[in-house]
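Researcher: We're reviewing a set of sequences before deciding which ones to prioritize for further study. For each one, I'd like a predicted 3D structure that I can look through quickly. This is TonB-dependent receptor. If possible, include the structure in token form so it fits the rest of the review sheet.
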Amino acid sequence: MKLLKQSSLALCVHAALFSTSAISFGAQAQEAQADKVVGVEVIEVTARKRTENVKDVPIAVSALTPKKLEVLGSSGMDVRALSGKVPSLLIESSFGRTFPRFYIRGLGNTDFDLLASQPVSLVYDDVVLENALTKGMPMFDIERVEVLRGPQGTLFGRNTTAGIVKVQSKKPTQDFDANVSASYGTYGSTDLRLAVGGGLTDTLSGRVALLQQDRDDYIDNEAPGFEAKDQLGGYSETAGRVQLLWEPNDEFSALFNYHFRDAEADARVFRANIIKPGTNDLIDGFDRDTVFQDAASRNEQTVDMKGASLKLEYDMGDHTLTSVSGYESAEIFSVGDIDGGYGAAFLPTGSGPGVIPFPSETGARMPDHKQLTQELRISSNELGKLDYQFGLFYFDEDLTINNLSFDTLGGGAQNGIAVQNMETTAWAVFASVDYEISDRVNVNGGIRYSDDEREWDGTLVQSPFGNPSFDEVTSVDDSQVSGDLSVNYRYSDETNLYARIARGYRAPSIQGRNLLFSGNATTADSETVASIETGFKSTTADRMGRLDGSVFYYEVSDQQLTAVGGGGNLASLLNADKAVGYGFELDGEYFITPDLVVAGSVSYNNTEIQDKGLEVQACGSACTIRDPFRQVPNNFAADGDGFDEFALIDGNPLPQSPEWISNLSIRWSKELGEGELYVYSDWSYRSEVNFFLYESVEFEGDALTEGGIRVGYEWYGDDADYEVAVFGRNITDEEQLTGAIDFNNLTGYINEGRFWGVEFKANFF
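Model: Here's the predicted structure for TonB-dependent receptor, in token form for your review sheet.
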């Protein structure tokens, strides 16, 4: 793996951890040490499916390079480690390490169902990963991660109303290089990574990358009668990638990519009654290393993923023909103690932090899943003032889900199963044109036509309540036009200004998990978003600093929302008339001295649901509802008060949408001997968030600040580079709620704890 070698390696939240203008290897590294050039790096991105200087792209885009990703993931954290590290990006999960939920500029989806769609798309090595389970693919041996903010309806299409996270792994080259890293840390955590690549023949090159991550169980169970030491919290994950690149001539290339993931972990660890009633504080004496559960011994989550892609490129002179074919398959089995406690209020279980009104132990299995994608496009090759690209896209996904329930009081025997099958087919045609009006002004416009159809059937095979079995069938379909228009103005050699209007589209959705409780499937119509933004991208004349900024406003029509929980403990889809959002984003970096660089970002997002009379079922007496609400008599209300509460949500912010997200980092380095000593620290902040559509005192997450530190030494040889480091994440050991379960008690889950570790790396070439 190529490392940037300079006396000052700059962290850039928006662009790169180490920002320098010279890249050197081996014997060249020592020559570069004697002739160092310090300054912000020229970052190239593929946000518009062309390789471009990020400064020339009229989109709010952030790029994170390998060094940044390695630092953030050094504690074994999954993709959620990226949350808050670039403007307006939040990532969370109530499903564990396997089901990340992305939010950009406040737009996301809190639904935890395996059928759920998201308005943030993940594109991994040019292949869109649609199912939220596939979005948990680990990031290792990565060349770059790009975060595109705002609707991306022209080139990427459906389900990109909020933006895109675009991941690019390192590609094979004819030059040999290899790298290995190993770390050990808190909870017996180990992280091993290996990658090797180079030429196999004069025209064929290859690259192999492997990841192995493990952590011991460390959470004790102290529920009476279920006591066990070190019962939860561990995981074991293996992932790999094999790539072959064939380049028989200068005009044609074929890149084959095979990847897999095999993971065993605990499902998300929920904790009953950890919220102090009347507040959103954790209870007195809370201990993150302890739970009180009666089903902890059966907590299990296994994931098996595999996929392949083939990218063909043919340079025809004035045009390039590109074909990207992708196949993805994923399987999962997951079961957990959803109530997060033990016993039941009507049993002689005594008292304690884990006592619950009644138990809930559920799970899901996805035994069959396949996704096929095909994109074909033609791009012009710098013809002059006018350039363009156009193409077509096809998507097909077929999956089966088993929703399961278990009799906790009866020892965990399965007592319910509902089977869902869904097939999604979509196709689109698109075109984009870029025209150079003058040496200073470029205009870009694009349009896309999308057609979507989903067919779903569900069967209640066994009801946990003894209800009769039944079948249900439904479907949704729609076609939409999306696109964008932007202008980029080169105000000076150092500063570009841009403005952009865009329309995005999120396909209609189906939610069927309620079948397990004899409910009906719910659907949501398509949502569309209209967005306008303007911004600037600038560097100082001496390239010692960089500052980018944007201001935006958007309106979402028929906003897709998921009402989760309430007294009925059900999840259902609905459409709000409208949601609006506005805000700004700033991020930059600056070399204070050649050996000291600071970087930071800040974003403000204000979101609001606008739909008079829209209401959702709320938590009732289990929490303190802030919204106006009405009560409906129900003798079976989960909270035991005899009523179901329905709260009006008009005017509320979108869930998991903090107003403020910021990040600050600093790096100091010093030449020492044959290498370089460095100290690096980064701090991220997100303000308060609502966990659900309605507002309540208890189900609001307090502001969260987390910090990291890394102290290391790099030294360079003739044919290898080495690094040893000590690092820490969440070094102040902040404990905050990051989510909750709206069921029958004050159940929640928290952020990752403090982590310390040591790491060694070696890079050979």
